[in-house]
Amino acid sequence: MHKNPQGDNDIIVGLCGHIDHGKTSLIRTINGFDGDRLQEEKERGITLDLSFSHLSTPARNIAFIDVPGHEKLVKQMIAGAYGIDVLLLVIAADDGIMPQTREHLAIADMLGISQCVCVLSKIDKATPTLITQRKAEIIELFSAHTITLVEIMPFALLDSQGAEFTHNPYVDSLITLLQTLPKPKKRDYGMVVYYIDRAFSIAGAGCVVTGTLMSGEIAKSQELFVCELQKQVQVRNLQIHDKDATHATPSHRVALNLTHTNPHEIQRGFLLTQKGFVRGANLIDAQVRCFEGMEIRHNASYELYIGARHLPIKLNVLDEELGLCSLSAKEPIFALFMQPFILREGNVSVCGGAVLNPINDPIKKKTKIPLLQALLRRDFLEAFKILARIHRHGFGVVSSTQRFGLSHQESSAILQNLQENGAVFFDQKDLVAYPLSELEWLKNAILDIFLKNKHALLSAQSLQLKYKWASLRFLQSALDELVAQKFILQRDSLFLAKNNGISNIEEFLEQKIYTLLCEQGYAPLAPYNLYDSLEIDRKLGDKILKSLTKSQKVLRVAHNLFITTESMAKLTAMMREIIHTHGYIDIALFREKLPLSRKYLINYLEYLDNFSDIIKDGENRRVLRYGSS
Questions:
Q1: Which terminus of the chain, N or C, has less C-beta within 10 A?
Q2: What's the pLDDT tens digit per position in 475-516?
Q3: What are phi and psi of 171, to 5 degrees?
Q4: Is the pTM of this model over 0.85?
Q5: Checking DSSP bridges between strand 252-258 and strand 231-240, what pairing results, if any?
């Protein structure tokens, strides 16, 4: 297997600019290849879709993404911009800065691309004075953006005599610059983030996808998850720039051969990551910044471009001054904290923004705005305090990587801090925090159980059957506090009312369970339902049933079916009578005599298989071995 030795130094360069300003010609001059071009593109001489190519140099591998310049195809430019390390903005010296020049630069700036090399093309068509003017205009253009203008590089296809270069010196200078340009630090999302831009099938290999790895590492044989399909896939093989590799790191164009899927179900923009790391939400919260001359409208529809995907959304303005808003969609949005995006309306880019809350919480506006403000300034202590307060049944940080860009350790440290300051109860194992008000509610609920049933025998496990939202450690804490406050008693692992009056717990329960099974007759409750009705611990309940079975007061007929020996003897006599009367017994005959559910009847019929004089005749039919006498 080939492994790229300079892999960590490789960069991805995105070419953009106004139509006909020479992007594709520049690529062809650099590496003799104009990308993965469609036939229609070649016929029309313009780029309609993303085109990919690369150049191997002694210093690094440079991947190029050529994006369309036409105003109706800006969405392709956005789809290609998410993985770019360096922007190569091409501006023709004769035309100068055009509308798509401004739009492409503004989009790149909004998407967080940090550095740009501006190529001033077609300098053979401009006078020295005009070239000087164009450079001044470019410098002024960049002054309004945060993206750094690294250098303005001249370029032309023809020499001063109007002839094609045998060896283009402008290209040499540009390649030298791209080889030495410092690679920008990529954001580590704490997980694999790989957006698919193409999917196709290769004979003998199956489904192959291509895309840019933004975060994490992908290795051969690794299990990955297609978020939009909710499907697990495996990497059978991977290639970087047409060469087999054992693993891939960020800033690589990577082709993956995937198992358990096919190209027909995969769309551009689908997200590949590890299972369990990213959840989708139909509503997310964000902050937006409008492009020059644009404004957002409350309750208006826009197209959301996030990663390499786009989908229709409806925008709800929460705070116009801060640009806080909610974006709702009919299908799940798989977003990450502080992930940049673009909103467009028709063919117009309206604004860019960053995701603040990728998994929306069902909270009121007056609470949501302070939460989003805290997230915006990355005040996670305050954000967690708000979230723990509004999530009465527990605020979990299992998805903290996606939600806050934090590791579990970082999230745990914040919640531990809140617990030490008396703000929450934090279950460190389940990574869930509960408001202390809920602990008091739980304690009162437990006391209410004892008030209604002084013979109740509780444990954290038995309480969890009733309060499924609460973790075992949270429930145990409530019980322990009640004991410490002398409201209840504890015997071994059980908790009792102070006035329970039970001298021997096991003897009391044995009689109680046996009496209930006698009362329930031929349709006894399943053990766990029985324990729940008595409000006793499962472990203790199992022990009591085992004791009753050992003493032969109770029979275990099936996995979850315990019946008194007396009741089973009557049932056996009833079934034998049916066989003697009809020559056989099946579910239909049995139900005429005993109208019970099918699950009981089948288990009782199967009990007959324990007798040597009765045999099975078909799936649910029994007869006497030697015929009726």
A1: C
A2: 999 999 999 999 999 987 789 998 887 778 888 888 889 999
A3: -65, -40
A4: no
A5: antiparallel
